[in-house]
């Protein structure tokens, strides 16, 4: 089936460690997004990419990094510089015509 | 610039009662509007979308929303709530060349037996 696959579903990290969240899509979409979700705060945009080998910072990019080497893949690295990384992370790709987002199932990161 | 306001972070209804979740938007150009639903520890799923065709939009699971330009609103309704409707609902807007969606802060719907 076509869709967005995020992995891992749950991840635990010690302070000071970098961690990479995977996001893969087979919808042939050009644009992909990473959001962070905290209770009561809705979705906040971390990074987005409109095309391969290009990406832009969103509203809360500090402490995060991304790459877009392939159309299908948009991994997010949560670095040790991110002061409060415990959150639910959502990846999405965007449809061509109406611009609706298609979301993955999310990755929950907990820093111990 | 575009923005979304969802009135009421928590809404409770009885099973079988009308569901009304409010969304107001701000956009300088004709918008595209979306409602998404999120169940615990899952991603967001599209309920319905307005893309400048019919102002009354029907979505999945008997949800519908009406685009009212004069009121800059896109409220979500369902005639009869079901226990399985308990979830968080997000309204979102995109407009003009800004293909990024701007999300509201969400409304948690509780359905009481």
Backbone shape of chain A:
globular
Instruction: State the helicity of chain B in percent bands.
Output: under 10%
Low-confidence stretches of chain B: none
Measured as a percent range, the helix fraction of chain A is under 10%
Q: Radius of gyration of chain A in whole Å, from Cα? A: 13 Å
Number of strands of chain A: 11
Structural class based on helices, strands and sheet pairing of chain B: mainly beta
Compressed to H and E, one letter per element, the order of chain A equals EEEEEEEEEEE
Describe the main β-sheet of chain B briefly: 6 strands, mixed
Sum up the structure in keywords.
heterodimer, A: 112 residues, mainly beta, 7-stranded mixed beta sheet, 4-stranded antiparallel beta sheet, 0% helix, 50% strand, globular, B: 113 residues, 6-stranded mixed beta sheet, 5-stranded antiparallel beta sheet
Describe it for me?
The complex is a heterodimer of chains A (112) and B (113). Chain A is mostly beta strands and 112 residues long. Chain A is built from no helices and eleven strands. In chain A, a hairpin with a 5-residue loop joins strand 4 and strand 5. The radius of gyration of chain A is 13 Å and the shape is globular. The model of chain A has no long low-confidence stretch (mean pLDDT 93). Helix content of chain B is 0%, strand content 60%. In chain B, strands 2, 4, 5, 9, 10 and 11 form a six-stranded mixed β-sheet that branches. Chain B has a five-stranded antiparallel β-sheet with strand order 1-3-8-7-6, with no helix packed on it. In chain B, a hairpin with a 4-residue loop joins strand 7 and strand 8. The interface between A and B is medium-sized, with 26 and 22 residues.
Draw up the topology in text.
The complex is a heterodimer of chains A (112) and B (113).
Chain A: E1 4-7, E2 10-13, E3 19-25, E4 32-37, E5 43-51, E6 54-57, E7 64-66, E8 76-78, E9 87-94, E10 101-103, E11 107-111
Chain B: E1 3-7, E2 10-14, E3 19-26, E4 31-38, E5 44-50, E6 56-58, E7 64-68, E8 73-78, E9 87-95, E10 98-103, E11 107-112
Parallel strand pairs in B: 2-11
Antiparallel strand pairs in B: 1-3, 3-8, 4-5, 4-9, 6-7, 7-8, 9-10, 9-11
